[in-house]
Amino acid sequence: MEMPELTPDMLLRAYAIGVFPMAEDRDDPDLFWVDPRMRGIIPLDGFHVPKRLRRTVRGGRFRVTIDTDFEATIVACAESTEARPRTWINDRIIMLYSSLFHLGYAHSVECWRDGELAGGLYGVSMGGAFFGESMFSRETDASKIALVHLVARLQAGGFTLLDSQFITRHLRRFGATEIPRSEYRQRLAEALKLTADFSRTPAPEEIEAILKAD
Hints:
The protein is α+β, with helices and mostly antiparallel strands.
């Protein structure tokens, strides 16, 4: 069933109870609500960085920025690629989350090389919870490095919940796991009571601590 016209406020209220919207396809104008029985999360105190990626992060191949080009990031996440021929991000989602960005709730992490956007991710921040939405890479490891910097920022800012919605083999390598809907809602309720700070930039030693963690 097609949902009524969404507003940013309605979207935030949906996130607060553990529900989020998706489209069937990039060109499908309709949205539907998703409330997974098993919810993917990335434990912030159990984040694991594979050894090869640690070297890449330390090598500084990419320049990492926050909220520099949200629109380009979400549009890139919506693009189909050979590895991902279909995406669930349509024009309504791009418009809604761009509105959340201008209201200060949505954020992007971008990786740049030679002045070009090489990869990144975006999501929604509420209280002590961050809802990861999508990521993309135009160069090897770019989205992974964005994820490392996101986790460092969330740890530095006092967040307690990183929601990945679903689990992929890619995310399992970082320690992602699934929890039942009831447990997720309990963790979400506790996280929303907090006042975390996404603007808190992690110090280099805080990023290094993540790279050394097992």
